[in-house]
Amino acid sequence: MNIAGYLRRLGRPDLLDAPPTWEGLRALHTAHVERVPYEALDIWLERPTGIDPAESAARITGGRGGYCYHLNGAFSTLLARLGYDVTRHAGGVQSRGAEPGITRNHLALTARGLPAPGNPGGAWLVDLGLGDGPHEPLPLVAGSYRQGPFTYGLRPSEVAPGGWRFDHDPAGSFEGMDFAPEPAEMAEFEDMHRHLSTSPDSGFVRVAAVLRRDASGVDVLRGLVLTRQGAGAHSVTLDSARDYYAALGDVFGLTLDDVADAEKDRLWRRLRDAHEAWTAS
Predict the structure, then answer these.
(1) Cα(123)–Cα(8) distance, rounded to whole angstroms?
(2) Gap between the Cα atoms of 130 and 121, Å rounded
(3) How many of the other CB atoms lie within 10 Å of CB of 65?
(4) Which stretches of the chain are DSSP H helices?
(5) Tell me, what's the pLDDT at 232?
(6) Strand partners, 88
(7) What is the pLDDT of residues 147-199, one digit of tens each?
(8) Residue 131: what are its φ and ψ, rounded to 5°?
């Protein structure tokens, strides 16, 4: 892993030789969600990705993003290389109206040994892979936490004994997420990654979504509809390929330098056709 290159992508090369601290963890987390978008455009480009953390880190360093397996997988390795005590956990994101469970459709992280005011135990939920989820790590302490326009809850999980439950804000994109207490290996997520990348039932396959969190809200691009939630709320439909790719670059920092012009043309046509089918329905 190119640790120095990864930290440059985050705009925090100063943390390369810094000791593990709560302040350092918060700085890395906030920089990551602000600079590395939650995205699965490679599914729409028909370019399958793996979830090996080193591969994911190389994609991030090269200017791309990913979803939970990529983002949290790479970040956990970065943290470990920087000396943090970090653990991967099998989780389950609960869609609104669905049943909760540890489905392994999510990879969650915890970090420990980082005491801070309000969290003397020093354990934290670290999660870059929830799209409109936390901007900062959350104390692994039962309670309610306000970050920007969202209020999150943490409590013991009712479906994973010894695990934890993250409750999203009512305005969020999903109901909540449970994760199991024991450590998980990346191989445990391979089958679900394959399903999420290929199944017609997958939200990633149905809608090309890109999200970027900051301190005051979240930018969301679903298909061709660009929405801002929180400070400066607005919504606009992107009517041209030029506007779409400009938004990817300007709002989400995705220049897609790794995608050829012909691939971009095909992606735009797929997005336009999907948008027209959606509006017609």
Answers:
(1) 27
(2) 24
(3) 25
(4) 3-9, 22-35, 41-44, 53-61, 68-81, 190-198, 203-206, 241-252, 261-280
(5) 83
(6) 109
(7) 999 999 999 999 999 999 999 999 999 999 999 999 999 999 999 999 999 99
(8) 75, -85
Domains within the chain, CATH numbers bracketed: 202-280 (3.30.1120.150)
Element (H, E) at 218: strand 217-222
How many angstroms separate the most distant Cα atoms in the chain? 55
- Residues in contact with 117: Cβ distance below 8 Å, sequence separation at least 6, in sequence order: none
The two tokens of residue 23 are 């302040």
Tokens of 46: 């028909």
Of the candidates 264, 261, 258, 262, the residue with the CA atom closest to the CA atom of residue 58:
258
- What is the pTM assigned to this prediction? 0.96
**Contact indicator for 137, 125 with CB cutoff of 8 Å:** yes
Long-range contacts, 6-13 (Cβ 8 Å, 24+): 6/57, 6/60, 6/61, 6/74, 6/78, 7/78, 8/61, 9/35, 9/36, 9/60, 9/61, 9/63, 10/35, 10/36, 11/35
Instruction: Dump strand ranges (E) for 31-149.
Output: 38-39, 85-94, 106-112, 124-126, 138-139, 143-147
Summarize the chain as % helix, strand, coil (round to 5).
Answer: 35, 25, 40
> pLDDT (tens digit, 9 = 90+) per residue, 134-157?
999 999 999 999 999 999 999 999
Q: How many CB atoms lie within 10 A of CB 99?
A: 10
Exposure on the CB side of residue 210, measured as CA atoms within 13 A = 28
**Which pLDDT tens digit goes with each residue over 15-42?**
999 999 999 999 999 999 999 999 999 9
User: What is the CB-side half-sphere exposure of residue 186 using CA atoms within 13 A?
Assistant: 17
Helix axes 22-35, 68-81, angle to 10 degrees: 150
